[in-house]
């Protein structure tokens, strides 16, 4: 199934999770609907939310559009909504394979089949008993088989299919999906929604003013945290169209694409990579994958460097998540990319005293995860998430000759004023470094924040406070000196529209990028 069709399937999935049996939109706060419980095991997870599968299956059904047409379906979406510890609701959607897929039939009484269930840790199963006869394609009882964290059952054609954990995000999207229903998909798919505050500022060649002999460590470099999150979303985690998908709702940290970030002057890019269903490394944030693969990401940077040969780029790759086997596969794939002939001559080796002249036209890649015994750029070790300065300054960078250089990282996740001060404290420490040292410290200072809530609006709210804190330090004429690599959310935009379209946040991301560029010419 192509990406567009998957998105449509999951639009249907999400709508299914939002409409309880017998409830209207106004019933969303009904106290009889229990609050999902926190999970501690796969059995507890089964009892507290939505699981779904979407798969290919051919057959004939009668449509529910009032005309009772007999039509062919090509895909099925099954949704299991566990509402408490003993019961739940099942919905099955048949979909056509038209260019504009249609929901052909909802299976069950009032679009839903109610069931009760029991779990067995002895034989690793969940036994489901439906209270109403659905059809020959959905028997009276059903068995879900659990293997580790995977949950499987049989599809309409008796094929084995895997269920995916829908989590509790569907309930948080209730209001905005009602908006989608009322205003139709065309409105919500408006790609200009995030363009409202984009700028015409052009800093595409600001590094041309730098002296070739200047150390890269002796610069103030504007960077973007989770830099690819304005590139659009893909895969099963892209629930819905346009801005109303889970990637935008939970994981968006930028409003500018890679090309747009480059134009405003961003030269450092923090990215997270995951293997997608086709085993390609794809940029993302958490569980949410974007439309841009790592080879496309590097390809975009190379194209931009060819257009602006005075510039260079720094890429920092975060640690992968997953099992040991998943991390191993991740490392193998990244190693293939880093040693590909396609990028020969574009990746720069690392040296603590590498100069601007040596870096022009190249990409310097830092990876927190080892993908080989020898890095193409550099490995970052002892990366810190601490709020203590002595621990933030305890990291080191390893190059291809296994020489170690000091690494200072401020990326702690505490909230409140303590965190705000941590950004400025690292800036103060950075301007005081001894740049004449044989091994000057390299600094990565994250103004961004790891959100513990469930909305990208939280990221916007934190950016509103923290970006201006960093800007105020740089805007002080007495704070002279290089602050290192500074990575921010919503880089290059001074305002960002909230997810619901009701207000905007003063992210000050363009002011901060420009202040970092100016910092290089204060000295």
Radius of gyration: 25 Å
Classify the secondary structure makeup into a structural class: alpha+beta
Main sheet: strand order:
10-12-15-16-17-18-19-20-21
Q: Share of helix among residues?
A: 25-40%
- Characterize the largest beta sheet: strand count, sense, and whether it forms a barrel: 9 strands, mixed, barrel
Which fold does the CATH topology of the largest domain refer to? TIM Barrel
Mean pLDDT: 80
| Straight-line N-to-C gap | 56 Å
Give the count of structural domains: 2
Q: What is the CATH architecture annotation of the largest domain? A: Alpha-Beta Barrel
Strand runs, count = 23
Summarize the structure.
By secondary structure, this protein is α+β, with helices and mostly antiparallel strands. The protein contains 13 helices and 23 strands.
Give the SSE map.
Blueprint: H1 3-18, H2 42-46, E1 50-62, E2 70-82, E3 87-95, E4 103-107, E5 113-120, E6 125-130, E7 141-147, E8 150-154, E9 160-167, H3 169-172, H4 174-188, E10 220-224, E11 233-234, H5 246-251, H6 258-264, E12 268-275, E13 281-285, E14 288-293, H7 294-307, E15 313-317, H8 324-338, H9 356-359, E16 363-367, E17 378-381, H10 389-392, E18 395-398, E19 404-410, H11 417-431, E20 442-446, H12 456-475, E21 484-488, E22 496-497, E23 504-505, H13 509-519
Parallel strand pairs: 10-12, 10-21, 12-15, 15-16, 16-17, 19-20, 20-21
Antiparallel strand pairs: 1-2, 1-9, 2-3, 3-4, 3-5, 5-6, 6-7, 7-8, 8-9, 11-14, 12-13, 13-14, 17-18, 18-19, 22-23
């Amino acid at each position: 199934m192509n990406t567009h069709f998957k998105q449509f399937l999951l639009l249907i999935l999400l709508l299914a999770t939002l409409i309880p049996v017998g409830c209207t939109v106004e019933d969303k706060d009904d106290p009889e609907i229990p609050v999902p419980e926190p999970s501690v095991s796969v059995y507890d997870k089964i009892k507290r939310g939505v699981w779904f599968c979407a798969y290919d299956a051919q057959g004939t059904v009668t449509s529910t559009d009032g005309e009772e047409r007999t039509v062919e379906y090509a895909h099925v979406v099954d949704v299991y909504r566990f509402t408490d510890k003993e019961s739940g609701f099942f919905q099955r959607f048949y979909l056509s394979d038209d260019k504009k897929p249609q929901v052909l039939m909802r299976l069950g009484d009032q679009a839903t089949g109610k069931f009760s269930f029991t779990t067995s840790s002895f034989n690793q199963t969940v036994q489901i008993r439906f209270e109403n006869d659905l059809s020959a394609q959905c028997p009276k009882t059903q068995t879900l088989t659990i293997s580790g964290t995977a949950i499987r059952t049989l599809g309409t054609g008796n094929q084995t299919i895997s269920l995916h954990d829908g989590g509790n995000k569907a309930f948080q999207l209730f209001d905005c999906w009602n908006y989608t229903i009322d205003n139709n998909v065309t409105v919500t798919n408006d790609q200009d929604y995030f363009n409202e505050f984009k700028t015409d500022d052009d800093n595409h060649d600001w590094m041309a003013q730098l002296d070739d002999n200047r150390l890269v460590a002796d610069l103030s470099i504007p960077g973007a945290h989770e830099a690819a999150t304005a590139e659009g979303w893909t895969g099963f985690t892209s629930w819905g169209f346009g801005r109303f998908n889970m990637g935008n709702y939970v994981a968006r940290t930028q409003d500018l694409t890679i090309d747009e970030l480059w134009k405003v002057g961003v030269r450092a890019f923090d990215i997270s990579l995951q293997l997608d269903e086709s085993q390609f490394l794809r940029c993302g944030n958490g569980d949410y994958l974007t439309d841009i693969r790592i080879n496309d990401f590097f390809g975009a940077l190379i194209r931009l460097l060819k257009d602006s040969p005075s510039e260079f780029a720094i890429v920092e790759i975060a640690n992968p998540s997953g099992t040991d086997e998943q991390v191993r596969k991740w490392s193998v794939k990244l190693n293939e990319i880093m040693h590909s002939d396609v990028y020969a001559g574009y990746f720069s080796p690392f040296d603590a005293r590498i100069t601007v002249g040596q870096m022009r036209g190249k990409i310097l890649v830092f990876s927190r995860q080892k993908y080989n015994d020898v890095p193409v750029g550099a490995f970052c070790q002892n990366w810190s998430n601490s709020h203590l300065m002595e621990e933030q300054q305890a990291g080191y960078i390893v190059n291809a000759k296994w020489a170690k250089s000091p690494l200072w990282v401020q990326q702690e996740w505490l909230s409140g004023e303590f965190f705000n001060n941590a950004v400025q404290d690292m800036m103060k420490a950075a301007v005081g470094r001894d740049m004449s040292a044989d091994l000057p410290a390299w600094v990565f200072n994250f103004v961004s924040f790891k959100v513990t809530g469930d909305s990208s609006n939280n990221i916007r709210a934190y950016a509103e406070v923290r970006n201006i804190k960093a800007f105020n330090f740089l805007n002080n004429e007495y704070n002279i000196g290089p602050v290192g690599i500074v990575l921010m959310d919503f880089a290059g935009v001074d305002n960002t529209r909230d997810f619901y379209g009701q207000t905007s946040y003063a992210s000050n991301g363009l002011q901060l990028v420009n202040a970092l560029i100016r910092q290089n010419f204060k000295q």
